[in-house]
Every structure is written in C-alpha cells, then in structure tokens.
Amino acid sequence: MPGEHFSENEISERMSASRTPVRQALFWLEHEGYVQVYSRSGWQVRPFDFTYFEALYDFRIVLEMEAGEAALCHAARRACRTSGAAYRLLV
User: Fold this and answer.
1) Is the CATH number 1.20.1560.10 carried by domain 4-45?
2) Hey, which bits of 2-91 come out as E strands?
3) C-alpha closest to that of 72 among 54, 51, 90
4) What is the mean pLDDT of the chain?
5) What positions does the domain HTH gntR-type occupy (predicted)?
6) For residues 36 and 30, is the Cβ–Cβ distance under 8 A?
7) What phi and psi, each to the nearest 5 degrees, are found at residue 52?
8) Helix/strand/coil for 4
9) Any idea where the domains of the chain sit in the sequence?
10) Backbone phi, then psi, for 33, in 5-degree steps?
11) Alpha-carbon distance 91 to 89, whole Å?
12) What global pTM score does this model have?
C-alpha cells in the first residue's frame, strides 16, 4: 500500500525468492517511480498519482480505438471508409 515500508528480506520471504531478483525488481520499480529506497533502512511504496493513471487509461482507450480502426482498414482496404464510419458509430 502507498506509504508502506518494507525490506528486501520481507519480500524475498513472502515471494519465496532469492534477494537478487527481488532487489533487481525493486530497483526497476524505483526507476519507474513506484518505490523509494532508503539506504540501510528499506523501501517505501510511493503514493499513487491517480490523475496520471486516469490520463494513461484515457490514452489507452484512444490507442485501442485507432488500432481497431487500422485493423479494419487493413482487413478490407476497399471498404475502409465504410468500415471506419461503422466502427465510429459502434464506439
């Protein structure tokens, strides 16, 4: 949960995994901005920016709609205008 403190050992034990892959995953999560490392005192889950995740979700919807239209156009190039219009009506 956001704000929660934990150690590599706790995660290793919970996941039944060695510390090396856990440490690698945690540093990747730190690089992505999801956790923060505190030297010699463990890790902390950073708070979530729900506005950012909502924007990502909206962007995903736009991408999926465009991908669907592109797939329709690719499958039937002659009917692209008709298919695109029909797709927009469905969405």
Assistant:
1) no
2) 5-6, 35-38, 42-45
3) 90
4) 86
5) 1-48
6) yes
7) -60, -45
8) coil
9) 4-45, 49-82
10) 90, 15
11) 5
12) 0.55
What CA–CA distance (Å, rounded) separates 29 from 79?
45
State the angle between helix axes of 50-75 and 80-90 in degrees (0 to 180), rounded to the nearest 10. Answer: 150
Residue 25 has pLDDT above 90, yes or no: yes
5-9, 33-37, 38-42, 58-62: the lowest-pLDDT one:
38-42
Q: Say if residues 25 and 37 touch (Cβ distance below 8 Å).
A: no
Question: How many C-beta atoms surround the C-beta of residue 39 within 10 A?
Answer: 5
The count of C-alpha atoms lying within 13 angstroms of the C-alpha of 91, restricted to the half-sphere facing its C-beta, is 13
Q: CA 43 to CA 23: how far, in whole Å?
A: 10
Residues with Cβ within 8 Å of residue 73, at least 6 apart in sequence: 80, 83, 84
Q: Which two tokens stand for residue 90?
A: 């469905």
